[in-house]
């Protein structure tokens, strides 16, 4: 067998005068330390994330272990990707059994798994048809294309004049098409020009929405919203807002499109967050937990009048609807249903919300608001009172206390654990937060310099609003 040195010499000879190639000396990270793995990622991966300094090496249910064997409680659940819990045995069984039979066929051919998934998911959610994709962002892009196509074919909007209305503070992904709906300066700056045909409106303001519909309704194809805004910090609309949106969309012949990628599949205590007001959107986008934390799976649901506007060759995905993903998605939905995770989200959410509200009462100088539904909860902090400590540092201190949560927009921490979480684990998470506020924050404030004032959030480039103080 040739030595590593001999292989490297051979590669240099082959590639002489062109690009040079090295030989990876280690591909197994299981024996590496956390810091070595973090350093390796920093060196070789794009810096498009700012992770907490924790390395996932193994996970089960609500628990995660790092390479050193330290155990942590997951209070983020992969942004709702693992509602069912990490490495659920039924989902893993479906993955393994299907992987041994057939993984990818592409949609150039039929396969024997996707039709079963299509029937299952459309029956479960009460829609005629599904268009399968992979990631949530792809699902949103698909819904946007579908809305434009419907607008031109069914509503007779003049060519290239279709408008999509979306909400300030929305987050639907980071592709170029999707960020054209975004109010997040970090997501949009440096990536222009953004796609035309987008109008913003305040989330929760049905009167402002109707004014836009009255003014431009003839060219509006769709209103795109998260029924509860996730990345914005678990923002819940006023009671009656979703019903008002449904009525307005019906009145002005505009598609109501709900992004349920984070808020759906049991996260809020309903299978879909729109069910809190018994609203049926024209189009629903699913993702995250649809893959059970095992594979990326997304789906766009609609009735035939909308879905059949897209014909062969007009949209697709090599991996969308692949047999492996279809088998996993069925198992993922069955777990939510059979293990009563929707009901569990309500029960555990009430306990977690109650404990977090008690913490707010204990530390009103730090905690501005606790809000959420089910196990979709955000805790907003008072940035000026925390200063010079930051919410990111609060998350780091939670990590040191074996609880994993992540901040958003510099003032909010989301508490969104897997729906299988226990009462004892909820207590563990709540106690960790209380200890951070009682013990760690005063230490941080004493240790850190206070020369500079806290940095104010910049106004949105699109609408001029300061979304997060």
TrEMBL record:
GO terms for molecular function: identical protein binding; ornithine aminotransferase activity; pyridoxal phosphate binding. GO terms for cellular component: cytoplasm. Keywords: Aminotransferase, Pyridoxal phosphate, Transferase. One of its GO terms (biological process) is L-proline biosynthetic process. It catalyses: a 2-oxocarboxylate + L-ornithine = L-glutamate 5-semialdehyde + an L-alpha-amino acid. InterPro entries: Aminotrans_3 (IPR005814), Aminotrans_3_PPA_site (IPR049704), Class-III_PLP-dep_AT (IPR050103), Orn_aminotrans (IPR010164), PyrdxlP-dep_Trfase (IPR015424), PyrdxlP-dep_Trfase_major (IPR015421), PyrdxlP-dep_Trfase_small (IPR015422). It comes from the Eukaryota. Pathway: Amino-acid biosynthesis; L-proline biosynthesis; L-glutamate 5-semialdehyde from L-ornithine: step 1/1. Gene3D superfamilies: Aspartate Aminotransferase, domain 1, Type I PLP-dependent aspartate aminotransferase-like (Major domain). Its EC number is 2.6.1.13. Its cofactor is pyridoxal 5'-phosphate. It is an enzyme of class 2 (transferase). Belongs to the class-III pyridoxal-phosphate-dependent aminotransferase family. This is Ornithine aminotransferase. The lineage of its organism: Eukaryota, Viridiplantae, Streptophyta, Embryophyta, Tracheophyta.
């Amino acid at each position: 067998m040739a030595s590593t040195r001999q292989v490297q010499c051979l590669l240099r000879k082959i590639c002489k005068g062109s690009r040079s190639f090295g030989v990876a000396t280690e591909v197994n990270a299981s024996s590496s330390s956390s810091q070595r793995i973090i350093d390796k990622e920093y060196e070789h991966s794009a810096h498009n994330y700012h992770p907490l300094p924790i390395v996932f090496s193994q996970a089960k249910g609500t628990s995660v272990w790092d390479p050193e064997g330290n155990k942590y409680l997951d209070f983020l659940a992969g942004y709702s990707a693992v509602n069912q819990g990490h490495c659920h045995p039924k989902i893993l069984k479906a993955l393994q059994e299907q992987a041994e039979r057939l993984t990818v066929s592409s949609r150039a051919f039929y396969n024997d798994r996707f039709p079963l998934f299509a029937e299952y998911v459309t029956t479960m959610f009460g829609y005629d048809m599904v268009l399968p994709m992979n990631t949530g962002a792809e699902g949103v892009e698909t819904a946007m294309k579908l809305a434009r196509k419907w607008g031109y074919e069914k509503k007779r909007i003049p060519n290239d004049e279709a408008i999509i209305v979306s909400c300030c503070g929305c987050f639907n992904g980071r592709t170029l098409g999707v960020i054209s709906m975004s109010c997040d300066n970090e997501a949009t700056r440096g990536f222009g020009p953004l796609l035309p045909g987008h109008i913003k409106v305040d989330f929760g303001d049905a009167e402002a929405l109707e004014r836009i519909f009255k003014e431009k309704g003839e060219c509006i194809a769709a209103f795109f919203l998260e029924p509860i805004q996730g990345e914005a910090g678990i923002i819940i609309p006023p009671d009656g807002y979703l019903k008002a949106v449904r009525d307005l969309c019906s009145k002005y012949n505009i598609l109501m499109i709900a992004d349920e990628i984070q808020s759906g599949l049991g996260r809020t205590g309903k299978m879909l967050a729109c069910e809190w007001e018994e609203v049926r959107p024209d189009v629903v986008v699913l993702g995250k937990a649809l893959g059970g934390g095992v594979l990326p799976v997304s789906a766009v649901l609609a009735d035939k009048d909308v879905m059949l506007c897209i014909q062969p060759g007009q949209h697709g995905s090599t991996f969308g609807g692949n047999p492996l993903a279809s088998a996993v998605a069925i198992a993922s939905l069955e777990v939510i249903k059979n293990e009563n995770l929707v009901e569990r989200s309500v029960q555990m959410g009430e306990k977690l919300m109650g404990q977090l509200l008690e913490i707010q009462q204990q530390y009103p100088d730090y905690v501005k608001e606790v809000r959420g539904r089910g196990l979709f909860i955000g805790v907003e902090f008072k940035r000026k009172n925390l200063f010079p400590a930051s919410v990111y540092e609060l998350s780091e201190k939670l990590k040191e206390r074996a609880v994993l949560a992540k901040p958003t927009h510099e003032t909010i921490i989301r508490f969104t654990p897997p729906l299988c979480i226990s009462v004892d684990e909820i207590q563990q998470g709540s106690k960790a937060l209380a200890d951070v506020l009682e013990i760690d924050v005063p230490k941080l404030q004493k240790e850190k310099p206070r020369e500079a004032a806290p940095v104010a959030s910049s106004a949105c480039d699109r609408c001029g609003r300061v979304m997060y103080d």
